[in-house]
């Protein structure tokens, strides 16, 4: 199927294209998920690398607000912030993975306790990822224990076929952090 | 005795003779003059007395005539008779006085007469004067008687007495006539006497002159003999010297002038001897000098030939200069015309530059307006940037809203599937809006950069317009200076033309001078040839002079 860039269409054509794409997604049979296992994730970018978080693990995405600094030995803990009465420990994802941190970007607030948020450079988009098989992932090495698997966008036109590290938030928390409770709502 | 003394004495004697001769001649002339004066004086005195007697007789006669006439008619007044008688008596007295002086003069002159003839004449005159005196004395009583007769009215007696008086008057006039004749004879005798004295003086003067001449001739002969003798010996000496014999005997010497002349001649001969020696040496030197002169004249002739050739070349060069000068004048006039045209063009250029300056001002003003417009546009672009930032922020918020909607849809499970589609579309729209804002931002950046570039270019244009105006003003001043320079150039070229004309005049004078130089060179060449010939002749003369100098035997 040939994809027409929206820049090439007029307003009416673009509207028609959006409706057509929506119709195709709604008409997609769900049985196909059984054939190829996909994961609906939020793809983020930090220090030039692509990371993905399962969409069900994320509570909210916000712009990076002013953080209140906290005395801590973990350099990845860049501060705390509050939202809807809940304090979130904000960790810089690039620092966690050994990269260079940035001061702005997006905060990805995770579900569960303790309340934790990840500061990324950009929360790019929500898309379906296809996990790599074991043979393909054997040659790859995880930069952090929280990297549960490696995946690639289902749509080939996205991200240029780059490999995306799929993060497990439960393994992301540091050791002195209280264990998380799956399914907590922010 | 020296020659000067002898000459002094001789010429003194001659002068004394001439002086004596002159004095003698003067004395003779004085004698003649005295004789003549005496004759004239005596004759003149006698004639005066005779005239006085004659006048007295005439006065007496005239004074009595009227009285006698009236007496003969018997009507004579007494007063007239008295007046006539008084006049008659006065005339008779005057006449008798003259007779007395004449008698004295004749007596005096007869005793001291210059000659016998004149002595006889003076004596005869004395006799006649005495007869006249006697006749007058005898006539006196009759005349008184006649006056008495007239007073008495005796006419017959008066007439008779008058007849007797007329006879006596005739005798008186006869005596006067004879006396005049005697006086003329005396005058002729006096003239003869003067001539005789003159002849005697002439003769004596000639004799004295002849004697003086003879004496002077004798004196001159003596002087000649005393002077010429020694001079003859000196002439022989000089002739010997003239023959070139400078080694002979010396001339005689002495204390007088001739002796001193001998000394001088000896000195002269010794000097001539030295001169001959020196002349011989000088002649030899002259020969060498003449040889050098001939060589020099030949070189001078060659030099003159070269000078002529140089003058010809110079004339040709001057002719070329004249031609070049005319070309220069012609070209200068062309340049003047071109410079005048250029000056006119420069004035037009000045007007054009002035218009350009005004255009530059307009460009600068318009560029400033454009800059203000661009600044306003930049401000509006800044406002657009703010709007784009707002739109970008909205798109960012939409992006996050879409993400959160997708999260919420996923959390909703199957029921949120359609919502997830909406969230996905919102995400697409947010991304498109973000792309569009990025594109607008990029375009706006391009516009901003273009505006900045335009501002810079406009400022540069303003600066360049100002610089252009400055340069235009500079060009204006430069063109004005060029025009002024061209005017100066015109004046300069006019001066060049005038100078060239003066140069032409000067070159004509130079040509004339060269012509004169060429003529002078030709004359010099001719003179050099003549000088060469003269040097040749001089060489021959030098040889002759050498031969002549050999004549002197030293």
Structural features, described:
- The complex is a heterodimer of chains A (186) and B (554).
- Chain A has 186 residues and is an alpha+beta fold.
- Chain A folds into 2 domains: 1-30; 33-171, CheA-289, Domain 4 (OB fold (Dihydrolipoamide Acetyltransferase, E2P), Beta Barrel).
- Chain A contains 4 helices and 10 strands.
- Chain A has helices at 11-27, 32-35, 93-96, 134-138; strands at residues 38-46, 49-54, 58-63, 77-83, 86-92, 106-110, 116-120, 122-131, 147-153, 163-167.
- Chain A has a 5-stranded mixed β-barrel with strand order 1-2-10-9-8. Chain A has a 5-stranded mixed beta sheet with strand order 3-6-7-5-4.
- The longest helix of chain A is centred in the N-terminal third of the chain and has 17 residues, at 11-27.
- Mean pLDDT of chain A is 79; it is low at 176-186.
- Chain B is mostly helical.
- Chain B folds into 2 domains: 3-226, no CATH class; 276-403 and 442-549, Helix Hairpins.
- In chain B, helix 2 runs antiparallel to helix 3 (116-152) and helix 5 runs antiparallel to helix 6 (417-549).
- The longest helix of chain B has 156 residues, at 257-412.
- The radius of gyration of chain B is 78 Å and the shape is elongated.
- The mean pLDDT of chain B is 85.
- Chain A binds chain B through residues 6-7, 14, 18, 21-22, 25-26, 40, 42, 55-56, 58-63, 106, 123, 125-126, and chain B through 396, 399-400, 402-404, 406-407, 410-411, 417-418, 420-425, 427-429, 431-432, 435.
């Amino acid at each position: 199927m040939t994809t027409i860039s929206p820049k090439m269409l007029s307003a009416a054509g673009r509207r028609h294209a959006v409706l057509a794409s929506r119709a195709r997604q709604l008409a997609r049979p769900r049985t196909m998920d059984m054939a190829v296992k996909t994961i609906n994730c939020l793809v983020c970018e930090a220090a030039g690398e692509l990371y993905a978080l399962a969409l069900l693990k994320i509570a909210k995405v916000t712009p990076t607000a002013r953080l209140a600094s906290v005395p801590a030995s973990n350099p990845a803990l860049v501060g705390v912030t509050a939202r809807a009465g809940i304090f979130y420990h904000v960790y810089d994802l690039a620092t966690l993975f050994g990269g260079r941190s940035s001061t702005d970007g997006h905060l990805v607030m995770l579900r569960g306790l303790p309340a934790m948020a990840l500061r990324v450079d950009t929360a790019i988009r929500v898309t379906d990822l296809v996990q790599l098989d074991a043979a393909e992932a054997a040659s790859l090495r995880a930069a952090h224990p929280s990297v549960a698997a490696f995946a690639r966008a289902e749509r080939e036109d996205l991200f240029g076929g780059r490999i995306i590290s799929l993060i497990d938030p439960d393994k992301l928390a540091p050791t002195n952090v209280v264990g998380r409770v799956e399914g907590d709502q922010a | 005795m020296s020659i000067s003394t002898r000459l002094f004495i001789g010429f003194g004697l001659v002068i004394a003779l001439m002086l004596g001769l002159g004095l003698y001649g003067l004395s003779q002339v004085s004698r003649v003059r005295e004789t003549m004066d005496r004759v004239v004086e005596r004759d003149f005195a006698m004639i005066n007395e005779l005239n006085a007697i004659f006048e007295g007789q005439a006065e007496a006669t005239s004074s009595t005539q009227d009285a006698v006439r009236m007496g003969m008619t018997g009507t004579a007044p007494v007063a007239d008779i008295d007046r006539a008688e008084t006049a008659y008596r006065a005339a008779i007295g005057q006449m008798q006085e003259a007779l007395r002086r004449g008698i004295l003069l004749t007596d005096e002159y007869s005793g001291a007469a210059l000659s016998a003839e004149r002595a006889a004449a003076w004596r005869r005159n004395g006799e006649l004067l005495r007869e006249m005196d006697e006749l007058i004395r005898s006539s006196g009583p009759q005349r008184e008687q006649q006056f008495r007769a007239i007073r008495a009215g005796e006419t017959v007696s008066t007439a008779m007495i008058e007849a007797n008086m007329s006879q006596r008057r005739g005798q008186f006039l006869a005596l006067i006539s004879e006396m005049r004749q005697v006086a003329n004879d005396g005058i002729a005798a006096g003239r003869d006497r003067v001539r005789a004295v003159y002849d005697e003086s002439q003769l004596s003067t000639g004799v004295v002159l002849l004697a003086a001449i003879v004496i002077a001739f004798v004196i001159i002969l003596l002087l000649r003999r005393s002077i010429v003798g020694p001079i003859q010996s000196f002439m022989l000496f000089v002739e010997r010297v003239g023959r070139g014999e400078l080694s002979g005997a010396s001339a005689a010497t002495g204390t007088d002038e001739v002796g001193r002349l001998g000394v001088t001649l000896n000195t002269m001969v010794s000097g001539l001897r030295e001169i001959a020696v020196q002349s011989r040496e000088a002649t030899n030197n002259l020969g060498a000098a003449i040889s050098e002169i001939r060589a020099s004249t030949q070189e001078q002739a060659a030099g003159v030939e070269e000078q002529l050739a140089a003058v010809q070349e110079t004339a040709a060069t001057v002719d070329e200069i004249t031609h070049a000068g005319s070309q220069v004048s012609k070209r200068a006039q062309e340049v003047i015309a071109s410079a005048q045209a250029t000056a006119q063009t420069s004035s037009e250029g000045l007007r054009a530059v002035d218009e350009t300056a005004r255009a530059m001002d307009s460009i600068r003003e318009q560029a400033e307006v454009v800059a203000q417009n661009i600044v306003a546009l930049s401000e509006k672009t800044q406002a657009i940037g703010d709007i784009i930032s707002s739109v970008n922020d909205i798109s960012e918020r939409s992006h996050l809203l879409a993400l959160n909607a997708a999260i919420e849809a996923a959390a909703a499970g199957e029921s949120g599937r359609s919502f997830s589609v909406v969230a996905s579309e919102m995400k697409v729209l947010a991304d498109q809006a973000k792309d569009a804002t990025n594109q607008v931002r990029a375009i706006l950046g391009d516009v901003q950069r273009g505006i900045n570039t335009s501002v810079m270019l406009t400022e540069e244009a303003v600066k360049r317009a100002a610089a252009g105006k400055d340069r235009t003003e500079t060009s204006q001043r430069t063109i004005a200076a060029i025009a002024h320079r061209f005017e100066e150039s015109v004046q300069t070229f006019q001066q060049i033309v005038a100078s060239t004309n003066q140069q032409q005049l000067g070159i004509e004078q130079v040509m004339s001078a060269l012509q004169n130089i060429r003529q002078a060179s030709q004359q010099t060449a001719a003179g050099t040839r003549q000088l060469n010939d003269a040097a040749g002749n001089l060489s021959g003369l030098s040889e002759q002079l050498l031969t002549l100098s050999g004549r002197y035997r030293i």
